[in-house]
Amino acid sequence: MSVITADLRNYPLYIRSVPTQNELKFHYTVHTSLDVVEEKVSAVGKALPDQRELYLGLLYPTEDYKVYGYVTNSKVKFVIVVDSSNTSLRDNEIRSMFRKLHSSFTDVMCNPFYNPGDTIQSKSFDSIVSAMMVQSS
Amino acid sequence: MAQCAQSVQEFVQDSFVPTVAVLCSADAERVTRRNNLSFPELLRPFCRLTSEGHLRDPNNLVVVVKGLRISVTGVNTQPLQPGEVRKLLSQAVSGCQPPEGLPANVVTAGDYDLNISATTPWFEAYRENFLQSMPASDHEFLNHYLACMLVVSSREAAPTEQFQRLSQEQHRVQHSGEYTHPKWFIPNTLKYYVLLHDISDGDEQRADSVYEDMKQRYGTQCCYLLKINSRAAAAGPAEQMPDPWSQYLQKSRAQSPVSPAVLSDALSESHPLELDQTSNLGYPGNPSVAVNSIDTSRKQGGLPASSTPVAHGACLTLNDHDRIRQFIQEFTFRGLLPHIEKNIRQLNDQLVSRKGLSRSLFSATKKWFGGGKVPEKSIAELKNTAGLLYPPEAPELQIRKMADLCFLVQHYELAYSCYHTAKKDFLSDQAMLYAAGALEMAAMSAFLQSGAPRPYPAHYMETAIQTYRDVCKNMVLAERCALFSAEVLKSQVKYSEAAALLIKMTSEDSDLRSALLLEQAAHCFINMRSPMVRKFAFHMILSGHRFSKAGQKRHALRCYCQAMQVYKGKGWTLAEDHINFTIGRQSFTLRQPENAIAAFRHILINDSKQVATQQSAFLREYLYVYKSVSQSSSDVTLPQLPLPCLHSAQTRVFFGHERRLAEGEKQAATHVWLDQEYDGEQAQLWAELEEQVVGVANKGSVPIGFQPTQYCLSCHTDNLRYPLAVVEEPIIVEVVFRNPLKVPLALAELSLLWKFTPKDFSRPPGGVPGEALSNEKEVTALNDIISTEVIPEFTIGPEETKVARLQLLPHKTGELQVLSVLYSLGTVEEDNGTTSRPTFVRGRQDLEIQGPRLNTTKEEKTSVRHGPDHRLDPVITPPMPLLEVFFINFPTGLLCGEIRKAWVEFVNVSAVPLTGLRVASTHPEFFTFGCAASDLTPVTPTASEHCSAYKTMATPPSVAATMLVSPAMFGVSGDDRPTVAEIPLVGGGLGPGEALQIPLWLRGPDREGVHEINFLFYYESVEKNANHRVLRHKAFICASRSLSVRATACHSNTLPRRGGAEEEGGSSMLVFVDVENINTSEAGVREFHIVQVSSSSRQWRLHTCINPTGDRDSRLASRERGKLCFRATRCRTQEGETHARKYTFADLNLGNEQIVSSTTPCADFFFRRGSPSEAQKGGVSVGGANHTRRQSLTPAGGADDGVTGVVQKCSEVELNIIVLWKAYVVEDNKQLILEGQLHVALQTVGKEACSVPQKEEAQEMVLLKFKPDQPPPVSRPTLEQLSRLIKTCLHYPESYDHPFPQKSLCMVPVTLTLSNCSLAQVDVIIDLRHKTTSPESLEVHGTFTWLGQTQYKLQLRPHEVQRLVLKACFFQAGVYNLGTPRVFAKMAQAGTMCETSQQSSMPALIVINSV
User: A Gene Ontology biological process annotation (chain A) (predicted)?
Assistant: First the structure.
């Protein structure tokens, strides 16, 4: 499982994945999924600009993983990749995970010492992500 | 998907064409062979028809056939083995590289600008070859032979027989069942008889006659006389003929070498996966026996043609070309199309006749038998994975056959309906392979129908692909299907579907196919309406990976490079590293080492987040590549290395020798060294010191271009000028390396690379500078000019920052430029038993230092500009003197005020004499070299160890001995402290190699604590224009508390009575000195002895000690306090103005030894003590203000100020007390005697002065004042001060006997002495009438009366003493107080001021006795 946050310009802000040995693959997967995120956002944006659902749902399934996406109103993207064999995680769980992630991310942004665009090194953010990973695995 | 040269329709039409077999006689083969071509090859370029053909469908509608192409192949052409197919395909792909230098089109997607090759010719080549190599299969008939050409040469002895033979041969091949391979469309294949006539060779009449014969025998529609070879081959290539064959033959001949480069590529691509695939896949190989003799002859004939790529069609003229073209046209229109038309009709008739019956019958039986197969079919059916196999005559196949025929002649409507019917039949029979084929073709014909009556059934294709792949396990067919489908989807702008389709087709069994399809998928992503750049990049990487697995290195590299454009610089470091690494590897294997190095470099330079093992792998790879490159290239200039990071800006340069450490007792001057951190304040301090000393050396003026000497240049120093280095003195360059990796790095043979321009400074300027030299080729080659130090080994740990110090020693004068660092980079060997030497590569890194950013002018502020930095460009100057200073017996800890004698040694280590040695210090009061007058007995340091630092004389304690000393003798002029001292050198200088030891006295600082004392030694060369040099020393002294001396001065009321003293006018004072032992350390200090108290003043001197005799003990144990009382008198030599600057030293020794305080070192330190009041003040401005006020008080200058001044002066003393002490210290069971002196400056009468500076509250928060200070109010002399103008004293007998009985009035003479203490004239009024009115005085019963004048008016000159003789009259015996006269004084000049009552003296009691 892997959690990635990318900002408006699609630079990675935060990447975390377990297990770590196949990190490169996660990178590629997530990077590719940003295309789908963009596509979805632009499609939705046309239809209903004001009441956009932040949760994008399943972006695309691969053989081994399921990729879920979430975009904040400021176009910050969250991507969660889970093992496709993991059946315990339903759409609702993923959604709540994203909510949690979003609120934690907001806290990070509120930190006056955080420089927007830097990689996130906040410990609290880290611990929340870790908790989520432990919970889901 | 990339753009293709053909449209989709063309592509599909060209993929499915009627095929025609050729059976050639040996002679005919020989005829065509003259052109280096076989007969099918000869026809191939002309196989596309330029005119329209027509035929009628079963409903008698005319079908127009446009742009039909036929495919002509030899009947015995073998289907390629799968292995061969692979080889062919990979050759085709590798032989087709992207054109270089062609401008790639730029795709802009979001913030990405990508350079992407718009076309992918390698894919098209692959596709064409793939489709051509499709084996004919049983379930479809599209590439089955429709007709057969029988070719016989006209030279044949019996052409008709030959035709007969060939016809039989064809029949045998088709019907005997011996051969599985050539598959025939219809049982009665069209036979077309061709008589080949060689014009240049044969007999034309005979040919014509044979042709006539043929026409009679086979009918005109099936015969043709083809005349070729109009000219002899020997005619030579004078006439350039177009060669239409070349492009076809290149592709068709699998065995022919295409180009050497491709061949080498192809040979290397023996992928392991391909080895086990040689077994057949359902195409039983042709028996190795040749079909006929023609086959062998062809092969024999074919070999030379293929081995030597010669011009084809050498014997053919353009007329021949036209003939061939016409032949094909004739064949198609007269032979093939009618044949097809006939067959379609036949099949149609069959089907129509059968339909009504069989349909219902079949379906009925099926129902009844529960879906079982029809028995007649099931006999012949062979079960396979794809369902059943139909016998060739099965009615379902007839429909399919008809559909295929219609498709071939572009009658798509009919084809579609037939396919659709066939599909239903096949599906109901569960014949999956057949069904899939029918579905595929149905979809294709639906797509190709003009006018599009029905939408393209994409799901047909999907089902077909799925069936082919999953049910039939036939990847080749599935792939073909996918290729068409993707192309169609692309044409309909359904890119995402096309991409999904292509991605689905990738599998493990063929890397090449997967790679190509993935690449096409990537192109689909980028061509979407909103381009999916990241998906494009990702699939490009996947494709590159597959390409590299398939051995297509060039294509792999190209894919990675295109993907790199997306990932570059976006923060996806892992991906970026991976891509870079792969690019590096591929580039290296493709012999593009420069690109490989650049890619590897990129991985290593950036802050890599890889794990250590990965990094070390990267590093090893890089080193290996680099090494192989550097070995191959003979380039002289060494390339730049990426590792370790060189922090150029932090480079430091040091000029001079490495610091020598202390030798035994000798302690070398600290000077400057690279280990010292740069400290801005310190640097400023040293610069100020140097400016002072330079000012002194240049007689008070600092030269305009003065710059402080810099020995160590860093980013903090001013590097605008070229630094000066001296010949034969080393230059040390400190470079900072940082290892960004998590693996250690080993550097070897580290040295500097420099450029040197020799220049002789002794010659007049303007000479031609010498040629620039450099040690680039060989590091130590020019060691006679500049010795270059080489560090053999240098290891940097993981993520470590380390400095390396590299030394250069110039031997000639000139201009040096340090350019870069040379080193060999290698990995650190792991200790795992391997003896392999780690690889080292040689390279360099340039030291490029950017100066500070300029920010003065507007231009510079608005743009980013950097100034020059000449840190590394020193100018080597001729030899200069070089001084070394050693300190001997230099203490680290002292008591406050302790005097210690140390020695200092000056050594000139250069070959040039030095002169003008001076020293400047931040603490000039700390040390002295003694005054010039004192005899410098150069006793060796050891001999003087136990002697006193002072000069002593044996004298018993008595009246103070005095001595007059001018401060100028001690190098002190005026009030300012001398910060610069000249060091007395014998002969004024030091010759080369000479050394000099001179004594140095030190006095512990007055404040306790650690003191940092800076010495700056200045010296210069004897040559005039040479620069000066300096040497720095920084000493730390820990001062501990010793004694605290407090002193107060009081007016003495008594006037001296003794003769000598009276002449002085009665100026005397009492001085009380309180001495307290405040030493707190138990470390050995046992007790202090006050040895002597001396005074030094311009006006006063200590006269006698007036302590009670019993209290002479001057010992002070810890925390004891002693009090000493002295009488001070005014000096005699007051009036002489010339003597005013001289100080009188008076020594009052308490023991038996007098210390001559007026000599070195006591007086030295006295004059160097500095003003205590100034020292106590914190800020400069405060001290300055104080100073001016003091100045305004001292001289009696102004009229208004005069009064105050004079009055003030009265109570002012300027007496300095020097307390000399000895301390008995036990240290290491040894008793030591330490000596010291403390100074107290008394300034005002009655005010206490202290030797230990009072700890003031640090004035950290000084209020900012925006208004100028109010000028201090005109100080009016206070009453208290005014009352001290006149000192009065009554002289009278203490007791007076008077016989009152005899004489009732007793008259006593009383003398009133009036002494003017001030320096001005004073008017004095003495009033005797005044009675005491105080209540206490009333109690005094007895009264007396003054006789005579009751009021006197006097005027006293400065310091004048006057006596008044008064008479007191008593009436009875008793005790009387005579102190009733009131004295009023007034300054003579100050008329406005009223008189002030002077302080009355003490009660003067007189006893009158009655006798």
Answer: endoplasmic reticulum to Golgi vesicle-mediated transport
